[in-house]
Amino acid sequence: MDPRVALCAPFPAASIPQLWAWLQEFPDANFDDDGPRTLEEFTAQMQDRIGSERTWGAEANGELCGAIGYRQLDPQAGLFRGICFARRVHGTGIARAAVSQVIAQAFAEGTQRIYALHFADNVRVHRLLLALGARAQAVLPRWTRRHGQPLDVRLVVFSRS
Fold first, then answer.
1. Mean pLDDT, to the nearest integer, of 139-147?
2. What whole-number distance in Å separates Cα of residue 101 and Cα of residue 15?
3. Is 36 exposed, middle or buried (0-12, 13-18, 19+ CB in 10 A)?
4. pLDDT for the residue numbered 157
5. 34: helix, coil or strand?
6. Whether the predicted pLDDT of 127 surpasses 80
7. Are 118 and 84 in contact (CB under 8 A)?
8. Residues sharing a CB contact under 8 Å with residue 120, sequence separation 6 or more, in sequence order
């Protein structure tokens, strides 16, 4: 466990505008054509998710720097619903430490598999997930659209050892 990183749950609703700003740092990594287009749309979506999913804020050295969303699908399986960290902490190991805490918590609660879907061209998140122990399962061709163009999505899975 990295002592620099702490999780707070749920993600603080007052910090949704900050999360929106982080998502805008790399919008093509975070939004397809069906995603929210404004802070107001995103805020409504996040408020619904905070009430129905598990969300965490990630803090490094006491400062909020990331968000993780997760949904338990059934007693055996869960799904990452979003992983976003501020650009300022990319490459520092903070995202890896925070996401690994969520994975460890889910496995400790009895989850056997955790799935994650991400845009196939998002190499940064793909490398992060593989480094954390995920196995690539499939590429879903033309799964969604971004800027009106078909976009492949990757499926990866974490399995409890």
1. 98
2. 21
3. middle
4. 98
5. coil
6. yes
7. no
8. 139, 151, 152, 153, 154
Strands 77-85 and 113-119, bridge-based pairing: parallel
Residue in this structure with the two tokens 């805490």, named with its chain if needed: 101
Whole-Å CA distances, 120 to 54, 62, 141, 155: 25, 33, 9, 9
Residues of the chain with pLDDT > 90: what percent?
A: 93
Cα–Cα distances in angstroms (integers) from residue 79 to residues 1, 36, 71, 93, 160, in the given order: 22, 20, 5, 22, 14
What is the rounded distance in angstroms from the CA atom of residue 144 to the CA atom of residue 31?
Answer: 10
Length of the chain: 161
pTM higher than 0.90: yes
Give the pLDDT band of residue 50 (cuts 50, 70, 90). Answer: confident
